[in-house]
Design goal:
Helices cover 6% and strands 44% of the residues. It is mainly beta.
Length: 347
């Protein structure tokens, strides 16, 4: 009986030993790679690590943030002895001109894969989510513009337009100065002439009748055409002015980016701000100029008109590569805008 009990104990110990010691020997590494070199719009070189032996892989390139899934197959290679080695592939024509590109490797068998991304042309390439501007549609290389001919204060404004696309319908909007009338109050609709030049008079919306300076904008219903200007809401001479009335001062507020802490805050240094004026600080996505952006702070320009201040980056914009920032006066129509890389710098 004792012999059988001893045998059972030894058998149990034998079965338990692999549970404590055998598992520690099974350590599977997984393939990965880093970006070794990029020749803009030409080639990209990757440096692999922990590759399994003897597997065929394909290389896929795609738009940024797609992880290369269902991307363009540009090459295949065999991992041979595995481990670490370099692979250089061509950048396909369909992705040339991109600022950033996703890259992915997938084994033809075995289920191995890894993905990454690289800078292709950070300075002048097309950024994700940004559509390059459409080529001009008129037969001549001209863009629609208009000047202010006359103003009946608080009632109407008359414009003289030229170089408009022929026979297009436009929506006329007005807004406060500094907004470019983006998203402004609809005042009227107008159809451009068959020559592209016309004169028209539009009513000033009641909500803007008391404003000293008003922005006005014409947006085409189709084709993407637009033009904007601004006018003093006071009686104007009947004769057409070759240029809009000059601004009331020579110097305009501006600011530069002094420092950035990624996803946390940005410090600006400003000059030529009107003295003792209250400003609102707005931030938004790149290319918006901060118009209708997220309000992050308010400040007073003080007596000197020069400022240096730090503002918190809103959580909604954390992770953005570039951010637009705008300072906008509560009165007087003053504004300034800039943009910054959302990366720690200048500390």
């Amino acid at each position: 009986m004792k012999t059988k009990r001893l045998f059972a104990i030894l058998l149990a110990i034998t079965l338990l030993v692999p549970a404590f010691f055998g598992v520690s020997k099974v350590q599977a590494s997984y393939p990965s790679f880093t970006i070794s070199d990029v020749k803009t719009d030409t080639t990209v070189t990757i440096l692999t690590k922990d590759m399994p032996k003897g597997y065929d892989f394909k290389v896929l390139l795609g738009e940024y943030n797609t992880r290369g899934e269902n991307g363009i197959e540009v090459a295949q290679f065999n991992s041979a002895d595995g481990g670490s080695f370099q692979v250089t592939v061509d950048i396909p024509a369909a992705l040339q001109g991109r600022a950033m590109i996703s890259i992915r490797i997938e084994s033809l068998t075995g289920g191995y894969y890894y993905y990454n991304w690289f800078w292709n042309d950070a300075e002048s390439g097309t950024w994700p989510g940004v559509t390059p501007p459409a080529p001009p549609q008129p037969p001549v290389q001209a863009y629609p513009t208009f000047s202010i001919k006359a103003v009946d204060a608080g009632k109407t404004v008359t414009i003289v337009a030229k170089d408009f696309p022929k026979s297009h319908e436009f929506v006329v909007r007005m807004g406060k100065y500094g907004t470019l009338a983006i998203g402004g109050i609809v005042s009227a609709e107008v159809t451009s002439s068959d020559t592209g030049a016309f004169e028209a008079t539009f009513p000033i919306p009641a909500d803007l009748a008391a404003e000293k300076v008003i922005a006005i904008r014409l947006d085409a219903k189709t084709g993407g055409w637009y033009a904007y200007n601004w006018f003093y809401n006071t009686a104007a001479p009947v004769e057409p002015a070759p240029e809009p009335t000059p601004a009331p001062v020579v110097k305009y507020p501006s600011f530069s980016i002094a420092a950035v802490v990624k996803d946390t805050n940005v410090t600006i240094s400003g000059i030529n701000f009107p003295a003792n004026t209250d400003f609102t600080v707005l931030m938004g996505k790149m290319w918006t100029q901060g118009v209708n952006g997220i309000e992050v702070a308010e400040f007073n320009s003080g007596a000197r008109g020069a400022i240096e201040a730090t503002f918190t980056i809103p959580t909604e914009l954390a992770g953005e590569v570039r951010i637009a920032i705008r300072t906008q006066a509560k009165t007087g129509g003053w504004y300034a805008y800039n943009w910054f890389w959302n990366a720690t710098a200048g500390e």
